[in-house]
Amino acid sequence: MKTGKKLKPIIIGCLVCVIGYLMVISYIQSTSFPKYIQISPGQKLNLPIHYPLSFHQKKTDHFRSGTIGHYDLQLKLLGAIPIKTFHVVVKKPLLVVPGGQSVGVLYSSRGVVVVGLVSLKNQEAKECSPARDAGLKPGDIILELDGKPVNVVEEVEEAIKKYQESQAKIVLTIKRNELVMHLPIRPVLAENPTGFSKKKYMLGILIEDPAAGVGTLSFYDPLSGRFAGLGHRISDFAGKKEIPFQNGEIVVANITGLKMGTPGRPGEKIGLFNINTSPIGKINKNTQFGIYGTLYPHFNHSQDQTTPVAYLSEIKKGAAEIYTVIQGTKVEKFEIEIIKVYPQDRPRDKGLIIKVTDKRLLNLTGGIIQGMSGSPIIQNGKLVGAVTHVFVNDPTKGYGVLAEWMVQEMSRKTKKMSKAS
After folding, report:
1. Is pLDDT of 181 > 60?
2. What angle do CA 60, 63, 66 make, to 5 degrees?
3. Active site amino acids
4. Whole-angstrom Cα distance, residue 191 to residue 358?
5. CATH topology for 112-208?
6. Other beta carbons within 10 Å of 51
């Protein structure tokens, strides 16, 4: 009996320790501490760690936040029980120039884009498809027609109208990815699939001008000339998700109007750009973190002012700004609030939730609207991310991608232009 009484407090004590340990583990998991942390030289490692938890270094490490290097820090319970190991990297942040300029995104700087193939009925009422038979595919860019450059849909239509039965086949010069091909094709006299006009010569293709839409330049590296924009993938062209986005270009866009966003109905910037004006940069990649490429030398760098890119560990909930254009080509600053920061130790496209608090912007746009994608987010003098998506049911709120991941994507070598999905 005496032995049982002596063991009882010990058992209770052990249970308390086990429960406490499990509670600590649960706390660590619920707060989602990242295993991999990057900080700037001199930055304090601020994590919500309190007694009975504490950080401990391995004997071989001499962690100094001011010294560039890699360090392993171990989180322990009561200074003895290991809970989790953190890999800390101290490195200088990249200095970039924040953007905010509205840009027109071109699928191609010249030619027209094939967005679909259609079957036709010839004079014998038989179905045929000259374009498909010639080898055309959605996404092909028609550069020339019988040796004459074409840059707008109307030029192709006019050339086909002039075709006569006695003529030989027309030769289309097309670009598919990086390959230029010459495809002979014979138009057929057929009924218009729309049913709104008499029979005419057609190729059986749906074509569009190469403008993919308006977005925002996020930032660029003044040393290499590399840029990032949009913050998310261009997922389709002319509403066609199966069309891969090829190596396009960007041009300066002029914002001429705004469509206010309301719950359930996203707003948008109304932008104009001339596809015949000089592009300011070439797009090399289309990824889940935005479009990336290289600015052309003539792009004006005269007022470059660099800003450090913030690491995730430096981003806090609270006041911030976005840079964007709401009229003409002038970049303006608007107040927002970062209301959530997602802990991440690997690239993800949703790292922040932001809320527009600027009264002027709310009055003009209702919050975040289409065309703001890519607008840089600045907090405490550092680039923390870029706007990506709006909350459809609450246009005052939206998502942002971390600038840290965008820089990583920008630095990654281009293997192949990503396919839209």
Report:
1. yes
2. 145
3. 232, 358, 373
4. 55
5. Pdz3 Domain (2.30.42)
6. 8
Number of CB atoms found within 10 A of residue 109's CB: 18
At the topology level, CATH places domain 95-106+211-411 in Thrombin, subunit H (2.40.10)
Non-local (6+) Cβ contacts of 156 within 8 A are 112, 142, 145, 150, 207
C-alpha 251/C-alpha 272 separation (Å) is 10
411 or 366, which is more confident? 366
124-137 residue pLDDT tens:
878 889 999 999 99
What's the Cα-to-Cα distance from 272 to each of 275, 297, 385, rounded to whole Å?
10, 23, 26
Whole-model pTM: value is 0.79
The full DSSP string for 304-317 is ---EEBPPGGG--S
Find the distance separating the first CA and the last CA of the chain, reported in whole Å.
72
CATH class of 30-92: mainly beta
Residues 215-273 pLDDT 10s: 999 999 998 999 999 998 887 666 666 566 666 899 999 999 999 999 999 999 999 88
pLDDT digits (tens, 9 = 90+) for 272-325: 887 667 899 999 988 999 999 999 988 866 557 899 999 998 999 999 999 999
User: Could you give the 3-state DSSP secondary structure of residue 272?
Assistant: strand
Q: Is 404 left (phi over 0), alpha (psi -120 to 50) or beta?
A: alpha
CB atoms within 10 A of CB 43: 16
Handedness of CA 182, 121, 137, 205 (dihedral sign): positive
Domains of the chain: which residue ranges?
A: 30-92, 95-106+211-411, 112-208
Tokens read off for 114: 């094939």
Cα(399)–Cα(359) distance, integer angstroms: 19
Q: How many other C-beta atoms can be found within 10 angstroms of the C-beta atom of residue 3?
A: 7
Same fold, 95-106+211-411 and 112-208: no
Q: In this structure, are residues 419 and 235 in contact, taking their beta carbons and an 8 Å threshold?
A: no
**Tokens 């997922």 appear where?**
235
Which residue shows structure tokens 């970062």?
Answer: 338
